[in-house]
Amino acid sequence: MDPPVEFPYPISGTLMADPVIVPPGRTIKRTCIQACDALAFYPPGVADLPSSPLVLIPNIALRSAILNW
């Protein structure tokens, strides 16, 4: 059975073990956005992140749904 479409991370295709929300409200895999931040390169749709420290909000609802699946 394939996972629901919102569970895998679109870039890697793997399930998001630690999804976080970044401005402007997009959910991203924590390890991916941290690596992108270190390289100052952001995935499409989050290129407008501020230059201040990156704020990552855990997406608890999505993480719980993935764990329950």
Keywords:
69 residues; alpha+beta; three-stranded antiparallel β-sheet; 2 helices; globular
Short note summarizing the structure:
With 69 residues, this protein is α+β, with helices and mostly antiparallel strands. It is built from two helices and three strands. The model has no long low-confidence stretch (mean pLDDT 85).
Between the first and last Cα atoms, what is the distance in angstroms?
10 Å
Number of helices: 2
Largest beta sheet: strand ordering? 2-1-3
Average pLDDT across residues?
85
Helix content: 25-40%
Number of strands: 3
Q: Stretches where pLDDT falls below 50 for ≥5 residues? A: none
**What is the 3D shape?**
globular
Instruction: Summarize the main sheet.
Output: 3 strands, antiparallel
Return Rg in Å.
12 Å
Please state the structural category.
alpha+beta
H/E series: EEHEH
**SS strand fraction:** 5-15%
Question: What would your notes on this structure say?
Answer:
The chain is of the alpha+beta class. Helix content is 28%, strand content 14%. It contains two helices and three strands. The chain has helices at 30-39, 60-68; strands at 19-22, 26-29, 57-58. Strands 2-1-3 form a three-stranded antiparallel sheet. It is globular, with a radius of gyration of 12 Å. The termini are close together.
